[in-house]
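Lecture notes, structural biology module. Today: joint structure prediction for complexes of two components.
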Amino acid sequence: MSLIEVRDLSREFTIRKRVGVVRRTSVVKRAVHDLSFEIDAGEMVGYIGPNGAGKSTTIKMLTGILVPSGGSAIVAGLEPARQRRELARRIGVVFGQRTSLWWDLPLRDSFELLRRIYRIPDQTFQRNLDDHVALLDLGDLMDTPVRQLSLGQRMRGDIAAALLHDPEILYLDEPTIGLDVISKGRLREFLRALNHERGTTLMLTTHDLQDIEALCDRVIVIDHGTAVFDGPLSSLRLNGDASRTLVVDLVDEAPAISVEGAQVVKVEGPRQWLSFPAGASAAPLVAQVAAAYDVADLSIHEPAIEDVIRTLYGG
Amino acid sequence: MVEVAHAVRAYWLIAALWIRASMAYPLSFWTMTVGGVLITFLDFVAIWLMFSHLDSYGGFTLREIGLLYGVTSISFRLADMLVGSVEKIGQKVRSGDLDAMMTKPVPVLAQLCADRFELRRLGQIAQSVAVFGWAAPIVEWNPQRLAVLAMALVSGVVIYFCVFVAFSTIQFWTTDASEFANAFTYGGNTIMQYPMTIFPLEVVRSLTYLLPLTFVNWYPCLFLLGLHDPFGAPGWFRFASPLAALVLVGVTTLVWRQGLRRYRSTGS
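The predicted structure, tokenised, for the full assembly:
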């Protein structure tokens, strides 16, 4: 059995609108509609989609905050809506845009309170504290009230806090939002190590596709409440109308290269851009070009995930 | 019962942390506490001044009113210190803090009530105790009267606790309703500081059968003073504070569950 099993999960919201003085109409909005997927233990899954696609609603149902209006979700063998507090001991949740730490208290106090709330055994607590505090570089910040921490420091504090009780699953909602490039890089490195060394299952929603590139083997794309793509990152690129680009630097300027299986999309002096389907191999193409022209240099550009996803949303 | 024990444990874990945090700045703690005593002292001075023109008000002397004032205020301010934070539900919904609370393995209500626990409110309680202590000698104390007093204080805290929770829960429907809740919590306590004889019968009936605040101090104090209810309420009402508290706990539990259920199906 998978660690997370989602079957035809739905959540409708009734939005009441005022028309006239007393009359009201209600509109049913399907935030999540017949969503199904499974996530196995140890996976790192990117959960992406445009604003309002239903990402947060899904996470809220998987953590038990929201009760589904249809379908089912089983997380770690538990039904989140009914066994919310039991489930809380087995999962960690980090919301990027707000903190679940106590705002006016130093990190040390927050961690200590969590130890008692979760009834974390001393040994586990000490080990996790030592590991995560060192890896997340929180040592000097332990006595600083949370409100005085920078965004990046606070995020690291939040992640350390969410991991104190050894959760099997860590949900991260926009974990790198607002962080600088270096902080982002270090955070990704930490999460990768966490997954490799402890086997923690990661599910993250993000707008930063570099997070996905760096962390996730698998991507679930959601739009209008349903999954429009579920698979490995590599095949996400093949999906849709994505194409790769072969950039050829010729020794001399020449008219547009004509080869089978590719199209010249741009010419700039001796440099030419050839577009070919993402599913096709570049090898025969390179061979053809090299045979027919004097080539100074070659490079292949993968399609940007942004573009791939844009074509998915469009369709 | 196990559920209640869980909630109480979680409550004290969080509250203790806030107490420790506030003690980190002792000077600020004591200034605020003493400030609390002074401000609430003025509260009773207002009633006192009124008596410089009157000998009795609603048939009650100043000391008798002091007794009513003391009993309701001790209960109310204890409840306010213990669970007053619950009135910030709307704010917690808007900030998303409530979601974070729901991903922790302890009851949400306990987390809401214990949030930002303010021990300095003991200052306000001290003032209430002082007023009560000043009024107490007019009662001819005996074991029955002491028992009724103890019952009234415990029930009073529970009743105000329920009023705080039930009216704050309304914020699950309209997140800006915290002022509305204040009308019943702080407003309720202010009304109960006066003898019921100054109010129309309808008000007294409402405060008995709809929102049973009269069981906090009015009926028990009638017994302490050896009086019968001027409105002719049954004599056993004077001992019924725990019953009123129990009924209110039942209603509040339903309201709270309904509120949380609503939140869990709308997420906002």
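Point to remember: Chain B is about 70% helix and 0% strand.
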